[in-house]
């Protein structure tokens, strides 16, 4: 995560340049990394796509740099559960990042420091918000693409860990 006020504000400026969202310091999401079927508690490692994995929570900055990650939950674990039990969430709750915000998809809970899209946008402003949210949050998807392309063992087509 950004170290110090100057880096925090620079990260906010970098994200603001993408689609106009203020106060954003990271985009958050989970990704599945395939693993060999473990011998203990095998079923909890099977994800919604029916393969064994770890669900990894990642936060990246506007330049696709990974600034925080959690690697300890089996594939069946929901992204929101990982977030709710993360040290990063506790740090946000304590106010360590001042008025900074993360962008997450609809799998995350809406919180004062975690912005999610409107589930059913009705107004033009809500639709525009969702478009800008998507344009900004796609950075985490691109980060996963770069990571899994570079390290094939993290992608299902590259084998299992």
List keywords for this structure.
single chain; 161 residues; alpha/beta; 5-stranded mixed β-sheet; 35% helix; globular
SSE blueprint:
Elements: H1 4-19, E1 24-34, E2 53-60, E3 66-74, H2 79-84, H3 87-93, E4 101-103, E5 114-115, H4 124-150
Domain DDE Tnp4: 28-156
Cofactor: a divalent metal cation
Protein name: Putative nuclease HARBI1
Structural class call reads alpha/beta
Number of helices: 4
Tally the beta strands.
5
Q: How much helix is in the residues? A: 25-40%
- Number of structural units classed as domains: 1
User: What composes the largest sheet?
Assistant: 5 strands, mixed
Poorly predicted regions: none
* Topology order in helix (H) and strand (E) letters: HEEEHHEEH
Cross-sheet strand order for the largest sheet: 3-2-1-4-5
Q: How large, in whole angstroms, is the Cα Rg?
A: 16 Å
Distance between the termini: 27 Å
Shape: globular
Kindly report the average pLDDT value.
94
Question: How much beta, percentage-wise?
Answer: 15-25%
Overview of this protein structure:
This protein is of the alpha/beta class and 161 residues long. It has one domain (4-158). It has 4 helices and 5 strands; from the N terminus they run αβββααββα. The chain has helices at 4-19, 79-84, 87-93, 124-150; strands at residues 24-34, 53-60, 66-74, 101-103, 114-115. Strands 3-2-1-4-5 form a 5-stranded mixed sheet. The longest helix is centred in the last third of the chain and has 27 residues, at 124-150. The mean pLDDT is 94.
